[in-house]
């Protein structure tokens, strides 16, 4: 499958691999190394390099397309993929935000967000589930996330998509059942954001509100939904967020989750996510005992364990 064209331009998937090399997918299953087109790459560090590519995309696109035309690359299965954005300045996730039950409408949905840890896990990396007695169950939420392309503050909704660089599959690992005043433990633990396999540049997904998102646990299907069910669309999210915070190139915003299909995850499991022909797999580790509670937010929310959800962690 070749990189197809839209408006005369190649669509590109940008990845990190092996020892902080930068690559582009060619023909669907080959990786072309474009690292040498980036000056002082090692001195800048992996996150700054990705930000520079995003900020200077007009220049880097020309460079990458030239290299793609000249080189065939190496097989995708021969490289070790890394998190495409190893430590963004912000990783923000929308609260719920999908119309996954008949009684829900965009009008009665909160437009709300929380911070995820920027210590993100890349493909074949490991989520750590910690032993937290107050938690009822851990769940991986497969989400459609977008990557900011330029500094954004007080952005008008009708201009908001101009600030998107691309899209990336994202798992929001959730610790369910804790009654707390913040989302720090339920949502903000390190390794509880999984990102990859690569950044899909914006041209490759002309309509981000019509994308199928799927997930699996140990190879068994879990979530399967379309982003058309998003309550607050991406332009509205950007306009809302930039009233309060400045978004920077390379920041990641996860757009929320469709709850149908959510199931427990435990140490020893594997989880996978896919959209737009981009699939990534992550391991699950940790010292948490197995938790198998059937928890579906808004439908089935069991009582916290003895002592309540305010246990000292």
Characteristics of this structure?
313 residues; alpha+beta; Fumarylacetoacetate hydrolase, domain 2; 2 domains; 12-stranded mixed sheet; 5-stranded mixed sheet; 13% helix; globular
Structural overview:
The protein has 313 residues and is an alpha+beta fold. The chain folds into two domains: 5-82, no CATH class; 91-285, Fumarylacetoacetase-like, C-terminal domain (Fumarylacetoacetate hydrolase, domain 2, Alpha-Beta Complex), CATH 3.90.850.10. It has five helices and 19 strands. Strands 3, 4, 5, 6, 7, 8, 9, 11, 12, 13, 14 and 17 form a twelve-stranded mixed beta sheet that branches. Strands 10-19-18-15-16 form a five-stranded mixed beta sheet, with no helix packed on it. Helix 2 crosses helix 3. Mean pLDDT is 92; it is low at 4-8.
Indicate the topology.
Blueprint (H helix, E strand, L loop, with lengths): L4 E2 L2 E2 L2 E5 L3 E6 L3 E4 L7 H4 L1 H10 L1 H14 L3 E2 L5 E2 L8 E4 L18 E3 L10 E3 L8 E12 L15 E13 L7 H4 L5 E3 L3 E3 L10 E6 L2 E7 L7 H8 L10 E3 L15 E6 L2 E8 L28
Helix pairs in contact: 2-3
Q: What's this, in brief?
A:
The protein has 313 residues and is α+β, with helices and mostly antiparallel strands. 13% of the residues lie in helices and 30% in strands.
| CATH topological fold name of the largest domain | Fumarylacetoacetate hydrolase, domain 2
What's the alpha carbon Rg, rounded to whole Å?
19 Å
Please state the overall shape, judged from the principal axes of the Cα atoms: globular
The parts where pLDDT drops under 50 for at least 5 residues are 4-8
Element-level helix/strand string = EEEEEHHHEEEEEEEHEEEEHEEE
Strand content: 25-35%
Distance between the termini: 49 Å
Number of domains: 2
Mean of pLDDT: 92
The helicity comes to 10-25%
Strand tally, please? 19
What is the CATH homologous superfamily assignment of the largest domain? Fumarylacetoacetase-like, C-terminal domain
**What is the CATH architecture assignment of the largest domain?**
Alpha-Beta Complex
CATH top-level class of the largest domain: Alpha Beta
Largest sheet: 12 strands, mixed
Helical stretch tally: 5
Structural class: alpha+beta
Oligomer: single chain
């Amino acid at each position: 499958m070749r990189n197809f064209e839209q408006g005369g331009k190649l669509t590109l998937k940008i990845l990190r691999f092996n020892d902080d090399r930068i690559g582009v997918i060619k023909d669907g299953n080959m990786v072309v190394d474009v690292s040498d087109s980036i000056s002082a790459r090692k001195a800048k560090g992996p996150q700054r390099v990705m930000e520079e590519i995003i900020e200077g995309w007009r220049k880097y696109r020309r460079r990458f397309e030239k290299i793609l035309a000249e080189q065939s690359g190496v097989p995708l299965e021969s490289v070790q993929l890394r998190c495409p954005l190893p430590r963004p300045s912000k990783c923000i996730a929308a609260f719920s935000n999908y119309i996954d039950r008949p009684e829900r409408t965009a009008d009665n949905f909160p437009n709300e967000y929380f911070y995820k840890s920027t210590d993100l896990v890349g493909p074949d990396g490991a989520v750590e589930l910690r032993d937290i007695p107050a938690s009822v169950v851990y769940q991986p939420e497969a989400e459609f996330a977008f990557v900011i392309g330029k500094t954004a503050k007080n952005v008008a909704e009708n201009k908001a998509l101009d600030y998107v660089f691309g899209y990336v599959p994202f798992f929001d690992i959730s610790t369910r059942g804790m009654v707390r005043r913040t989302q720090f433990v339920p949502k903000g633990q390190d390794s509880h954001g999984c990102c990859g396999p690569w950044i899909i540049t914006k041209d490759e997904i002309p309509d981000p509100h019509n994308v199928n998102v799927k997930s699996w646990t140990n190879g068994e299907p879990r979530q399967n939904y379309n982003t058309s069910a998003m309550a607050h669309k991406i332009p509205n999210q950007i306009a809302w967020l930039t009233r309060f915070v400045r978004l920077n190139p390379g920041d990641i915003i996860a757009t929320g989750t469709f709850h149908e299909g959510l199931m427990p995850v435990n140490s020893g499991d594997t989880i996978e996510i896919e959209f737009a022909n981009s699939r990534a797999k992550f391991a699950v580790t940790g010292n948490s005992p197995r938790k198998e509670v059937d928890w579906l937010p808004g439908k089935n929310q069991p009582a916290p364990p003895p002592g309540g959800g305010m246990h000292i962690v």
